[in-house]
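Predicting holo structure, magnesium ion bound.
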Amino acid sequence: MKSSFIRSYSDPAMLPKEGLPQVAFLGRSNAGKSSLINSLTDSKNLARVSATPGLTRLINIFDVAGKFHLVDLPGYGYAKMSRIEREGLTALIHDYLSTSKLLQLAVVIVDSRIGPTKDDRELIDSLHQADIPFILVANKVDKLSRTELSQIMSTLQVSVPGVPIVAHSSVTGAGSGELYEEIVRYLSASKA
Ligand SMILES: Nc1nc2c(ncn2[C@@H]2O[C@H](COP(=O)(O)OP(=O)(O)O)[C@@H](O)[C@H]2O)c(=O)[nH]1
Ligand SMILES: [Mg+2]
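Done. Tokens:
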């Protein structure tokens, strides 16, 4: 799959108003978003995988196979961030979600070992309120036993009824094809 970095924006108002449909990737800092973007696009270093979380304040846009634009939003919920920084980040994310003309779908990445945090739930609430459809990714499932996996999957199904949930691991590659299929299926259905 041919994917490429397009550019970074610090201000959501500068994002293009015309072009391919956008799929926004959102998640807590350290939930594995960059690794997931790499595994989804079959690349080693498209989105930088960081061992120092909470350092990205930019919105990065990638072209995925000429089919859609993947919008990588800054990770939220980083503990070492000041309150002001945290609020700025939340504002940036909400600005993007409420002003983007091309946003069609969001992908919310949750660390399956931790489950949905307060920040994850708040984000999910704002997606519901803004009527933005989303797919939920239970990430890092390589860290779970079968029992733990089925527990977290049912917890998630109960908390977001009707939302597709993909169990994913960047270590094993599990779920990455499924996520891609879900995205493309959603985009082609909404075009019709
Ligand atoms: N076991 C495991 N570790 C992962 C997985 N995805 C990411 N990680 C690790 O989690 C940390 C954060 O990953 P990163 O992709 O930078 O997360 P981001 O902050 O959400 O972009 C890194 O140490 C990764 O190696 C996964 O699927 N399984
Ligand atoms: Mg990252």
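The CA atoms of residues 73 and 93 lie 7 Å apart.
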